[in-house]
Amino acid sequence: MRTSLFTEFKEGTALARTDLALTRQLLRHYQTSTLLPARRGLCRSTCVVLAWNIQQARVVFPHDPALIRGVISGAPCANALAAWGDQQRHWIVVTEGLMRALHDAAEAHAARLLAAFPAAFASVPGQRLLAATPLQGFDTMLGALLYFGAMSFVASHELGHHLAGHGAYFSGQAHKGRWDVPQALERQADAIGVAAALLSVSKLMRRLFTAAGLPPSGRQQQQALIAIVFTAGVLTSAARLLPAGFDFNGAHSPNAYRMLRIAATLLRPLRSLLLLDDATRKSIRRQCLEAVLGPAQHVRGMQQALHAPAFQAYTSQLDAGFRLFKDNLPEPS
């Protein structure tokens, strides 16, 4: 499996270097067209994440599946990009700067999760996870899995732009003066990214840590670990939207509202983990929020902000913006 992933990534990177439309977008956004190979270390692990999520997206992509490709830019900024290339190619681009930022955050958050969920990691599935050999570029398997979850959300968000047909907006001129239309499209891509990230994390963890031979309690513990890794991984990525120590009780911004939407969206896909009840899912989300964002008062501030009139008005404005433009979009797959 891994050979095919790396071979495809290598072929895609070679193809990207000949794609003039992609090169122009890389230069416009990053001022460099340098693309990195997946030879070793963090680049190799990132290649696995990108290829894993792209293969998953191809199942529902309405065009030739081979048109979706992923590459790693050598740009130092922390960013990701959905790009439309020559011959109707659909590109997912993540930067070296983003890789390193998510790597450091994932390793830091792994230590906090161990303290937040001692029973989960003391279980048989938890001990298997902690004893496993980490992916290349990581000190711990938990840090590697959090990175996988964080980068899966990033990749699936960008794939969401392609799957939902957002190229009709980004390559056109209609509604360019409106702030609500692009933010509404980001919201849709976030929702796709959250749902797809859980599928990616769940498939990987079930492949790495089989539930065969576990009693019912062990299978429930495995699902709890999947929920923890997925939730903390997505939040690790989403937390980049906010400055350190952001106070949700103070002034809000589009990025803060986006973070709130992502946090609110997490519970819906977690319902697919049928051995966990609603109280457990909510508790996992709350504890992951505290592990990623910091003190509990930030989480309480988020919960209050989710029900504030300003946030509800902002959400209504995005709904209006999306309705304005959706006639130009194909139906999501």
Neighbour order of strands in the largest sheet = 1-3-2
Helix count, per DSSP? 15
Main beta sheet strand tally, sense and closure: 3 strands, mixed
Rg computed from alpha carbons, rounded to a whole number of angstroms: 19 Å
Report the helical percentage. Answer: 55-70%
What percentage of the residues does DSSP assign to strands (E)? 5-15%
- Return the structural class: mainly alpha
What are the SSEs and their pairings?
Blueprint: H1 2-16, H2 20-30, H3 41-58, E1 68-73, E2 80-84, E3 90-95, H4 96-116, H5 118-122, H6 124-131, H7 141-163, H8 167-170, H9 180-208, H10 216-238, H11 254-265, H12 267-270, H13 278-293, H14 296-306, H15 309-325
Parallel strand pairs: 1-3
Antiparallel strand pairs: 2-3
